[in-house]
Amino acid sequence: MPAFSRLDALEAESIYIFRETLAAFRRPVMLYSIGKDSSVLLHLLRKACFPARPAMPLLHVDTTWKFREMIAFRDDIAAAGDVELRVHTNEEGVRQGISPLTHGSVVHTDVMKTQGLKQALEKYGFDAAVGGARRDEEKSRAKERVFSFRNAQHRWDPKSQRPELWSNFNTHIYKGESVRVFPLSNWTEMDVWQYIRRESIPVVPLYFAKSRPVVERDGALIMVDDERFVLREGEQVQMRKVRFRTLGCYPLTGAIPSEADTLDKLIDEMSASRSSERQGRVIDHDGEASMERRKQEGYF
Amino acid sequence: MTAPSLGGIPSLLRFITCGSVDNGKSTLLGRLLYDTGALPDDQLEALTRDSRRLHDDAPTALDFSLLTDGLDAERQQGITIDVAYRYFQTARRSFIVADCPGHEQYTRNMATGASHAEAAVVLVDARKGLLPQTRRHTYLCALLGIRQIVLVVNKMDLVGHGEGVFAGIAQAYRELAQSLGFGDVKALPVVALTGENVSHRSERMGWFQGPTLLEWLETAPSASGQAGEFRMPVQWVNRIDSSTRGYAGTLCGGSVAAGDDIVVQPAMKRARVQRIVTADGDLARAWAGQAVTLVLDRELDISRGDVLADAANPAPVSDQFAAHIVWMGDEALLPNRTYWLKVGTRTVNARVTAIKHKVDVDTGAELAARRLELNDVGYGNIDLDHPMPFEAYRDNRDLGGFILIDRQTHATVGCGMLDFALRRAGNLHWQHLDLDKDARSVTKGQRSRCLWFTGLSGAGKSTVANLVERRLHALGYHTYVLDGDNLRHGLNKDLGFTDEARVENVRRVAEVAHLMVDAGLIVLVCVISPFASERRFARELFDEDEFVEVFVDTPLEECERRDPKGLYRKARAGDIRNFTGIDSPYESPGSPEIHLLAGGRRAEQLAEDVVAYLIEGQGIR
Lengths: 300, 621
Fold this sequence. Notes:
The structure holds two protein chains of two kinds.
Chain A: H1 6-24, E1 28-31, H2 36-49, E2 58-61, H3 68-79, E3 85-88, H4 91-95, H5 100-124, E4 128-130, E5 147-150, E6 178-181, H6 189-199, E7 210-217, E8 220-223, E9 238-243, E10 254-257, H7 263-272, H8 290-297
Parallel strand pairs in A: 1-2, 1-4, 2-3, 4-6
Antiparallel strand pairs in A: 5-6, 7-8, 7-9, 8-10, 9-10
Helix pairs in contact in A: 1-2, 2-6, 6-7
Chain B: H1 2-6, E1 12-18, H2 25-35, H3 41-54, H4 65-68, H5 72-77, E2 84-89, E3 94-99, H6 106-115, E4 119-125, H7 132-143, E5 148-154, H8 163-179, E6 186-189, H9 213-219, E7 231-233, E8 236-241, E9 244-250, E10 255-257, E11 261-265, E12 269-277, E13 285-287, E14 291-296, E15 307-310, E16 317-327, E17 338-343, E18 346-359, E19 366-367, E20 377-389, H10 397-400, E21 401-405, E22 412-421, H11 424-427, H12 437-442, E23 449-454, H13 461-474, E24 479-483, H14 484-487, H15 499-518, E25 522-526, H16 532-541, E26 547-553, H17 556-562, H18 567-573, E27 594-597, H19 603-617
Parallel strand pairs in B: 1-3, 1-4, 4-5, 5-6, 23-25, 23-26, 24-25, 26-27
Antiparallel strand pairs in B: 2-3, 7-15, 8-9, 9-14, 10-13, 11-12, 11-15, 12-14, 16-20, 16-22, 17-18, 17-21, 18-19, 18-20, 21-22
Helix pairs in contact in B: 6-7, 13-19, 15-16
């Protein structure tokens, strides 16, 4: 009998979850956010469907504030031709000129991300949305289900979640209701990187250290990615060797100083690291239990 | 998740922690995370800050319990109300911990957590020793098939690190665990707050030879799903190329190789495995825990829910089982009500036909029960509408563990563990008869139907049905009226009016109506049938178009004004209990075939509507 590694077990579990989704829902979609978790998700979706092509489309909710390298990476993925990528932007938000720089992270995230996602789910009638959230990311996610039920208003009610036993998932919903599906629930950040290395999965180069133009703002290193970024008084753009641990909207995503310019160095750096992954995310710090509240409102 | 997720991987252990916050369970878990470096600096900072804010009395101590009490609501109430999953690793192993709360909803949450675990850490307070909840936790671990268990005697500092206290508790627990089927159980004296015997040896308890909890976890044997015969529930049907189908699934037992003979269950059709396809290339052999796609040597009708099994040793197939059930629904489990039962990838209709007993999880006593309430554990018989392949839960969690789903709300209301198949299914055969329903109804010059009149007492169901029957009879149709009240004088005279009895009442009436339709008759059923679930059960006995639901929709005030049998008066006076519309609910049909708004219209008009629907709308001749 062969011995399977931890990564083998996690991979098999995720493929199982993808196939349950494909078999049980009418219109599943994979939410593609361009980050490392999305890269792993897409890789697993391809494996789950092999040798057929991925049997669900990808959806990117574009807030118009993603790093340029992320958009280029996304377009390369779409050009591979085996997946159908749909991009949705909250045009109402664009018309209102919502920006993380002027409206702050809370309003920007709500309008461009949460509302944008709801619009897209309704527009296409998706009944299952697969996402890359992991339970180790944040305290309120530790209790998240693999198949997380949302009512017709896309709301998450911690009290109405279904108990999940074994790998026996209850996928029954009424029309209008939906589920969010998390195949990476049991993965840790380290698992994700080790799997990326083992499977040679391409990721956005922003994860690797490189000299980049940044400013220090509110204790974070923010990269000046385009001309929309307005310097405040006293701020100076400096070239620093930095990388990103998570990727989101560039004005809301803090970089970390790092020398890790290869995957091996990155994993070594992580093993020694004592700070958590979401630390660079500006939105998570807006008040205690903010993640839980946003989830109830329909944020991923 | 024994097989699909674990498949016997030595480097990953899933375990569960049981005990209450008072035992220091959250502290123990926080300690494990802290000592294995799973806590990043910023989380540690937040912890220090929160500890200081909440404990003015001990500003420097870390309150590790704050790490694991995740949800807002919980932190305010100071209790954990749902299962949380945590992750940490040592150089030797990775761990996934299901953290189960000790107080509220304990049975439901513990069953959930234990279903994901191979090992259990049971926690007691050295000052208190074994409590009723210790037995409860151990019983539930045994019920859910956990074989590795360790007792952690916490707060040893508060009993002077005394060896005698520890030895007494350890011995008592060994006896308890053995009575529940566990072998030799290790016990550890621990101080979670300081990490003594958690991650490092305790100097103050030099009398204890070890191991530490971490060492125990690193070396506990993990379950292997690779033993046993080949089993794979078909999860999803894939396309290999334009002419070939592949059957995607995760093996939940044994192994399979290209060239092996397999059988498709429950249909028992045989085939040979041609290829084992994965994205990393074809495999010569696949093992339990692996997600693959099988290609067979011939075209068969195979769909999700079928089980592929070793041809020489297929899984047993049955439609009647004895099983343990853990009830998780807010509404009680009622015998004979139909639920969806999901095992593997197959979902079938199921009824609990008899509750043998329920278990007092604190004492182990078996108690008589007519229903199961939230957090009850019971043992009973289950009847399915289709035979399915299965394994006893003790042999295979994936083909022996099931969930029960409410067909109206879609909530997961229970889970269960199949024990064994009841023999009846194998010995009872369906006698083939040459004549069928069509033959019988053709000689009557009609198509048989079941008209199901539902509505409140006094709504006019029997009055309208009587008129409809007279009219149909006059036109030469062959009919019969099954009246709920009349049946209670005979067939159903043993039944009362509790929810359980109402469910059984409707089931019997529906089965009799089904026989009469089979005999070629047009049957008019008049029963209040207040629950949507049972009306649905009745509907599903019949072919499409054969069942016509007639909702006699008379407002409650009107029924009460008429009160033809004086029952509403008695119910209002409290002389009758469980009266529909008064102290027992009526669930209105969502989309009946015929909706009779009976308020201001005469019964003759309503009857005409029904007759017109049958003759003009459905063409029953």
